[in-house]
From TrEMBL:
Keywords in alphabetical order: Hydrolase, Membrane, Metalloprotease, Protease, Transmembrane, Transmembrane helix
Key word Mitochondrion present: no
GO cellular-component term (any): membrane
GO molecular function: metallopeptidase activity
Membrane topology: Single-pass membrane protein
Pfam families in the cross-refs: Zn_peptidase (PF04228)
Species annotation: Sphingobium limneticum
One annotated GO biological process: proteolysis
InterPro entries per UniProt: Uncharacterised_pept_Zn_put (IPR007343)
UniProt name for this protein: Zinc metalloprotease
Length: 294
């Protein structure tokens, strides 16, 4: 990506978690264990299954969930100067700044103001408005506090474990989470959550997949509208990243047969398709995954 001329977003925080364990310690069990009931209530057993599969793929023992965590976790939130951030954090903020400008333009054209989300960096253990944040969960958006939570070590996992190297996956992942922010501030997310409460598990999972694919499409819209952003090879990097984190690919990586009814993010083919649609059209109106087949 061409990011040299991009202005970094000022909407960020850095959390310093004290008292939590690493990926292999008791802290993981306590934090993610508290989140499993929330995941189950929103996405059903299929959602919990996908989280456990991701843990296995990332080398985390799911049995650690039973162990309870070691003590209470204290989290300090700071906003250090940009010069004190790591290179990957600054790249992330350049991407976030780019999304802010693109979505501000889209909202302005509709006579609205765009309220930007905040990006929260943490390492292994953090705290969100939706509960404990754990590296094994990957990046996520919390609608309760309108923040994106990111352990940048996830990008190393994308490169080494999922064979999705390059800088465009950073942009794709952050822009995808921004897509969930768009769904929240437009009220789309609330409508889907209400529909999920009256749906079967399979129906609820299918609605969740449509939300995730729409966020993928929104990520493509961002990249399409930042005309100076993409370099040769970026499209291929984005497609590899979308393929790597499809539910069917993750289930195969975990040694399981893919079960479509358990999908909560979409298959690799679906994720590539909707990312590409956003890239091809640059039009968020074309990202309506809730009409017709996906």
């Amino acid at each position: 990506m061409r990011l040299d001329d991009e202005q970094e977003s000022s909407h960020y925080e850095v959390q310093d978690g004290r008292g939590g364990g690493g990926l292999g310690g008791g802290g993981l069990g306590g934090g993610l264990g508290m989140l499993l009931p929330l995941i189950g209530s929103r996405f059903g057993c299929g959602g919990i299954a996908v989280v456990l599969i991701i843990m296995v793929v990332m080398g985390v023992n799911p049995l650690s969930l039973i162990g309870g965590g070691g003590g209470g976790q204290q989290v300090q939130t700071q906003k250090p100067a940009s010069g004190q951030l790591t290179d990957v954090q600054r790249v992330s903020l350049k991407v976030l700044g780019s999304t802010e400008r693109r979505w501000a333009d889209i909202f302005k054209a509709q006579g609205q103001q765009y309220p930007a989300p905040t990006l929260v960096f943490y390492s292994q253990n953090g705290q969100s408005g939706c509960g404990a944040a754990q590296s094994a969960m990957g990046p996520f958006y919390c609608p309760a506090d309108q923040r994106i939570y990111l352990d940048t070590d996830f990008f190393k996992e994308m490169e080494t474990r999922f064979n999705a190297p390059g800088d465009f996956p950073i942009g794709y992942i952050i822009a995808h989470e921004v897509g969930h922010h768009i769904q929240t501030i437009t009220g789309e997310a609330d409508k889907i959550r209400k529909a999920q409460r009256n749906a079967s598990e399979a129906e609820g999972n299918a609605l969740q997949v449509k939300m995730e694919l729409q966020a993928d499409c929104y990520a493509g819209v961002w990249a399409a509208r930042d005309t100076n952003l993409m370099e040769p090879g970026d499209l291929e990097e984005g497609m590899r990243a979308a393929e790597a984190i499809g539910d069917d690919t993750l289930q195969r990586e975990a040694g399981r047969r893919p079960v479509p009814d358990s999908f909560t993010h979409g298959s690799s083919a679906q994720r590539m398709q909707w990312l590409r649609k956003g890239l091809d059209t640059g039009d968020p109106a074309q990202c309506d995954t809730f009409k017709g087949a996906i």
